[in-house]
Amino acid sequence: MGACLALCSLASCASCLCGSAPCLLCGCCPSSNNSTITRLVFSFFLLLGTLVSVIMILPGMEMELRKIPGFCKGGASVFGIENQVNCDVIVGFKSVYRMCFAMTCFFFLFFAIMIGVRSSKDPRAAIQNGFWFFKFLILVGITVGAFFIPDGTFHTVWFYFGAVGSFIFILIQLILLIDFAHSWNKIWVENAENSENKCWFAGLLTFTFLYYALAIASVVLFYVYYTQPDDCTEHKVFISLNLIFCIIVSIVSILPKIQETQPYSGLLQASLISLYTMYVTWSAMTNNPNRKCNPSLLSLVSNVSTTPSSIDGTHETVQWWDAQGIVGLIIFLFCTLYASIRSSTHTQVNKLMQTEEGGGMVGESEVGEDGIRRAVDNEEDGVTYNYSFFHFHLCLASLYIMMTLTNWYQPDTATQAMLSSMPAVWVKMSSSWLGLGLYLWTLVAPVIFPDRDFS
User: Fold this and answer.
1) Running DSSP on this structure, what letter comes out for residue 315?
2) Do 307 and 292 form a contact (C-beta atoms < 8 A)?
3) Average of pLDDT values for 271-275?
4) Cα atoms found within 13 Å of the Cα of residue 435, Cβ hemisphere only
5) Residue 53 — pLDDT band, cuts 50, 70, 90?
6) The predicted structure's pLDDT at residue 329
């Protein structure tokens, strides 16, 4: 009896996994809008690939795989079973590069397919919102194929693809943080005005102060630990410039002219952007190959020198996991989830992110004859987000994850080592400057062009 019920339950979910309908006829899907469900499922695919990459880069994973009889070449063997798998490739940075290459190809495929989709009446919208089982099979197939790519120059070439894609994704993360802070500030200010409860204003003030305090503390720590009196000139310039730029955008955000055109603009957004800019600055400095200017977190805590013991060009052991990488993953997870469920009223951010105002709001769910609530097709008149841009965003996110998990180290095809490099430093710093410029533009554009409609 239990088996029959289980089969019936699986059959009811089959239409959601394999059907062409956008999860409208499936009782196993939650009551929500199709636009939200679709973005969440695609984001789940990205997070699943990220989890696999994290597992395969864990320290000691190769040793554990070699213990499986008959699995790894050169590992334990079983009589009659020939070891076939090169465990060098399926773990470490090689596995991350291949896994993220597969995810990038997967999302780029849908980016190309979904160009020009305007509503759910387009036949391609059924592909976007359904056929999840087949999509998963496609992703698995591309992933398996990626592990058969010969080493050659693949890692070096893909490193530069990752650097460019991550540069753009850092900007998108900044835009999402601007949007989040704007929506947060707007909601709390409206609650304070409607309820006449000053606790909302106190909350905004508390978080603003906290973010600025963390940003200022970061600047002090950067000067103490990431600069030297007779060295690290680049770091001194980076820290000083970003500190000055953060002060400028903070002052501009509260100017009377800005407040007239954007009454919900304020120091909360500026403080969050300042803190994020300091994180990007820190992340950039940790990629400096000069170990005098780039001490590891372990050395800062234990006061142990990080100067490499060998001077003959031998590369030091790669440290895959460090604090800035973990913080980067946390910010990535937040931005990915927020991009899936966001409903923004910030017009300029909506234009940059190719979404409609309030597009993510949940409509009234439909109730079927069996009393089960169905997902709502809220895109018959027009899509609430740009399908292609969403996949392009996930494509860039895959590249960003690849660079974050490998600490932006550049692979050396001659020695198979991973090296810190100055290009990674300049990519991150450039993205922080361009991101601050974008935020400044969202503030001053309505003032500079008063005749244009920004509302």
Assistant:
1) P
2) yes
3) 90
4) 32
5) confident
6) 74
User: What pLDDT digit, counting tens, does each position of 85-126 carry?
Assistant: 556 555 677 788 888 999 999 999 999 988 888 877 778 888
Are 347 and 455 a contacting pair, CB within 8 Å?
yes
The amino acid occupying position 203 is: G
Check if the beta carbon of residue 350 is closer than 8 Å to that of residue 384: no
Rounded Cα distance between 280 and 275, Å, is: 9
Mean pLDDT of the chain: 74
* Residue 435 identity (one-letter amino acid): G
CB-based burial of residue 330 (10 Å sphere; 0-12 exposed, 13-18 middle, 19+ buried)?
A: exposed
Q: What is the pLDDT of residue 86?
A: 58
pLDDT at residue 242 tops 90: yes
pLDDT tens, residue by residue, 392-412: 988 998 998 888 888 777 765
Which stretches within 196-307 are classed as H helix? 199-225, 233-253, 256-261, 267-285, 297-302
Give long-range contacts, CB 8 A cutoff, 24+ apart: 83-92.
Answer: 87/62, 88/62, 89/147, 89/151, 90/56, 90/65, 90/147, 91/56, 91/57, 91/61, 91/62, 91/65, 92/56, 92/57, 92/62
| CA–CA separation, 101 and 87 (whole Å) | 18
> Are the beta carbons of 317 and 438 closer than 8 angstroms?
no
State which amino acid sits at residue 326.
Answer: I
The residue among 376, 379, 391 whose CA lies nearest residue 339 is 391
- Kind and range of the H or E run holding 418: strand 417-419
Q: Specify the amino acid at residue 293.
A: C
